[in-house]
Amino acid sequence: MHKIALTAGALYVIVLLRAGGTFAVGWLAGAGARRSRLAERITSAKFQRAERAIQRWGAPVVAVSFLTIGFQTAANFLAGSMRMPLPRYLPALFVGGAAWALIYATAGLGALEVLRKLFAERTGLGAAAAIVLLLAACGAVLYRRRRAALSSSDATATAEEP
Predict the structure, then answer these.
(1) If we measure between CA atoms, which residue out of 26, 9, 15, 129 comes closest to residue 83?
(2) In terms of pTM, does the model score above 0.70?
């Protein structure tokens, strides 16, 4: 239990610094980001989805974004660039960050413990499990990149049609 508490505490500090830093960068960038080199990234479908959700729901979106993968950075940056007031943002950061830290501390340590036992007791099975996890991660990255490339080429083809 002590190991989980220590890990969760360290992850909580990390997420507060990372998400808070992303919010601060968004705050400082503000409207200027939409006129800079970042404009292409900020107008991506992911950022626009996050912006619409933040405009509609506000701080709860920021808190829930910590339970997602890939949406968290966009939500924090856009909350900053949209100048979400700190009294609304900070509670969402603290609650969402705590949930994120606890989930990653418990699930992460549990997964590492399972892999450690597999390697200690059945090295071949442990190596196979690590390879399967690595291949699954690579497959997910390739799938997302191909899907993004296809959607951008579809958008380009649609824009070029007379």
Answers:
(1) 26
(2) no
